[in-house]
Design a protein that fits this description.
alpha+beta; Alpha-Beta Plaits; 2 domains; 6-stranded antiparallel β-sheet; 5-stranded antiparallel β-sheet; 5 helices
């Protein structure tokens, strides 16, 4: 895990735009650049102290904007946090961000990983179901019964707030929240080409609602294929003259 994308939600339209790309090089240094999605809305300015959309930023340590989105390892709830995320204690900062989404109540940013095929040619993506607080009582009862490995479905829905919406359902067509909006277009592109195997990775009964249902999506991908290939993911960094 060495590449994350940063998504920002427009306060007026409520649409999510991919506005940045964070990578970690082999020498452990971090690199951040803006992507074309940063120019999609006049409401977007810049992130943190990184004012120039066409500059690449480098740091030997994780930029504070992202480091502050990781629960401190000294916190007493950190072991539970790792369990909710389904991740090992030796996970890197980028792995923690990728699995948690890096959401904070004080802004409209989140992060998500680039996905590439593994040695067997399969892509794997984890995400938490969104919108669980709005489930009806019968859907909440179905949520309580979910076990790891239970098959789920992604159902395309032309939602009034998101024309690319993907609803999560169990085998009985019971709604179980939604796929995060910033993943919808990429997942829909996959669904047009091949089925997605979606299962319950974890059902965290005692966790905060945003960490309740962790899903795992698996699908085949050709070598060299990038899951996120839209124009919004294209770096804005100007080419360096020879």
């Amino acid at each position: 895990m060495n590449t994350l994308y940063i998504a920002w939600q427009d306060p007026d339209t409520r649409l999510w735009h991919t506005v940045g790309r964070l990578t970690q090089a082999s020498d452990a240094a971090y690199r951040f650049c803006y992507t074309a999605g940063a120019t999609a809305s006049p409401n977007f300015g810049y992130l943190g102290r990184m004012h120039d959309l066409y500059r690449c930023y480098h740091s030997d340590t994780l930029f504070p904007l992202f480091a502050n989105r990781i629960l401190n390892r000294s916190r007493p709830e950190f072991p539970c946090y790792l369990e909710w995320l389904g991740i090992d204690a030796d996970a890197t900062p980028l792995e923690l961000l990728a699995r948690s989404g890096g959401r904070r109540a004080t802004d409209s940013l989140c992060v998500y990983p680039e996905v590439e095929p593994d040695e067997t040619g399969w892509m794997m993506l984890h995400f938490f179901s969104h919108g669980l607080r709005y489930l009806a009582p019968d859907a909440l009862a179905a949520l309580d019964r979910l076990q790891p490995g239970t098959a789920l479905q992604l159902i395309a829905e032309d939602h009034q707030h998101d024309r690319y919406a993907l609803q999560l359902q169990d085998g009985a067509a019971q709604p179980l929240g939604y796929c995060p909006r910033y993943l919808n277009q990429s997942l829909r592109a996959v669904m047009r080409e091949t089925p997605i195997q979606l299962t319950v990775a974890r059902n965290n009964y005692q966790a905060p609602i945003q960490f309740r249902l962790l899903c795992e999506a698996r699908f085949p991908g050709a070598k060299g294929t990038l899951f996120h290939g839209s124009d919004e993911h294209r770096p804005l960094v100007l080419p360096v003259a020879a």
